Amino acid sequence: MEPDPDGDIDHGAPLPPYRQLAGILAARIRRGDWQPNRAIPSEAHLVQEYGLARATVRRAIAVLVDQGVLFVVPQRGTFVKPDSEQPSMPNA
After folding, report:
1. Which of 12, 14, 59, 92 is most buried (CB neighbours < 10 A)?
2. For the chain, which residues make up each domain, given as ranges?
3. H-helix or E-strand containing 66?
4. Whether this model's pTM surpasses 0.85
């Protein structure tokens, strides 16, 4: 099932929150919310938007970095990788 880019985190679901967030972020990238080589919202913003712990947000971002969807520039932020294959569901 394709994650809803406008979905919320379901803390009672069998899928861990970090995987749900990774799916939501990947769906938002596919939808065009963030363009290649452009920053996604900061960790602090995502923590507030989704009501998750910073460690959970970092883990979701790490999943997408490992999959080649995002890349991190130290002291600049997390960016959408150009020409990346956007997965339908992240694998942890």
Report:
1. 59
2. 17-80
3. helix 54-66
4. yes
**CA–CA distance, 90 with 92 (Å, rounded to integer):** 6
Segment 13-71, tens digit of pLDDT: 999 999 999 999 999 999 999 999 999 999 999 999 999 999 999 999 999 999 999 99
**What is the longest distance spanned by two Cα atoms in the chain?**
35
CATH fold label, 17-80: Arc Repressor Mutant, subunit A (1.10.10)
Q: What's the one-letter identity of residue 78?
A: T
If pLDDT is split at 50, 70 and 90, which confidence band does 84 have?
A: very low
